[in-house]
Amino acid sequence: MDFKDIFKIAFIGLSTHRVRSILTILGIVIGITAITIITSLGDSAQGFILGELESFGTNSAFVIPGRTAFGGENILTDSLREKDVEALAKKGNVPAAELIVPFVFGPAKVIYESEKYYSSLLGASPGNKDIDDLELAGGEFINEEDVIQKSAVIILGSKVKEELFGSSDAVGQKVKIKDKSYRVIGVLEPKGQSLFVNYDQVVIVPYTTAQQYILGYSYIQRIVVTASSAEKLPGMVRDIEETLRDSHNIENPDDDDFFVQTPEDAAETFGMITDVLTILLASIAAISLVVGGVGIMNIMLVSVTERTREIGLRKALGARNKDILLQFLIEAVILTGTGGIIGIALGSILTYVSTIAILHFTGISFPFSSPVSGALLGVSVSTAIGFIFGIYPARQASLKSPMEALRYE
Q1: Contact call for residues 366 and 42 (beta carbons, < 8 A)
Q2: Partner of 404 at 20 to 30 A CA spacing, among 21, 42, 151, 305?
Q3: Which sign does the torsion angle of CA 304, 305, 310, 316 carry?
């Protein structure tokens, strides 16, 4: 018999027991669907993170307190201070630096008359407007004088303004945080979620004001430094490191209590994290594929037993052992391959729905991603499972004696 005839017979054998065939592939469908969703969302998350990092520009560097992101120590230490900002601002120390933007962050309860809103607080400086590409729906942004004077001024995110003031004009009004009044000088245009903060739900005050009156500490949590060009970024990073070592009296670089990341470094770090999480979650989901494979093997063994007389008749008419083996093996591969295709399609649909749900509930605009490599891997894995778990039942079928098979009741 040629391969075409064997494939036709295998397909007829499966279509004769449609319900059993459908139930058999459920485990494969569930496993491939789960893996597709996990890998697609992981890829979408990486796309979102890379997009947000690119928004800072390729000429920016992030100065972060602590030793290293994976050094086993708390990276949110108090090693960065105002003196470090002043040292970095000296042109002789970091010649390529065009903009130096320190900021702090934390939670805040904002009160206007009887209305309350639990918000994120960003202690910023004038440079934040350019770095974060912020636009104002009304009013003005904080200025350098506000930072120096620790002014009691505040900028509201669009959702904060809506919750506290509704359709009324907020600029010029006063809100309270920790029993201190702050004059609203601006309202942000809707922007949504960025990598670090949801700007619709944030309130912005001068970082010195946040330190003194709201957060109660004097250290700085992040400093963003932008170079005049991307080509000057590596040299600027070295100057930043040398300047901060002098400021902190550090001689050995291994003793640094800070680290400097470029967008490329941050992308690599985040990419490593999402890759590890994706592999871990996909490995857990792959357990269902093994369970599905065992189910395939059990059902195929039952099918072999039920079709013993058919096997005997085919052998009596001249079918060889390898023809019987190939027939049942093809049946197993068709089942798992079909389950893989259905799982990929279902997983892609659910991933798309998930990105819409994430945008609706969190404001994070995840790009929809359904990588071709993931689809090919899903089909390959499901087909391989059919082959691996189908070999034993197919071999059992091929080894049956035609005389005993014809006498089987």
Answers
A1: no
A2: 21
A3: positive
Q: What is the three-state SS of 3-29?
A: HHHHHHHHHHHHHHCHHHHHHHHHHHH
**370 and 294 inside one domain:** yes
How remote is the C-alpha of 331 from its chain's centroid?
A: 38
Range of the domain at 343: 3-52+267-407
Query: Does residue 221 lie within any of the structural domains?
Result: yes
204: left (phi over 0), alpha (psi -120 to 50) or beta: beta
Global model pTM greater than 0.85: no
Which residue(s) pair with 115 in the sheet?
A: 112
Cross-strand partners of 187: 138, 156
Query: Has residue 61 been placed in a domain?
Result: no
Question: Could you give the 3-state DSSP secondary structure of residue 365?
Answer: coil
The type of residue at 285 is A
- What the block records as the tokens of 70 is 């994976």
Domain boundary among 256, 285, 314: 256
Write the pLDDT tens digit of every residue in 73-117.
445 578 899 999 999 999 889 998 888 999 899 999 999 988 899
Give yes or no: residues 99 and 246 share one domain: yes
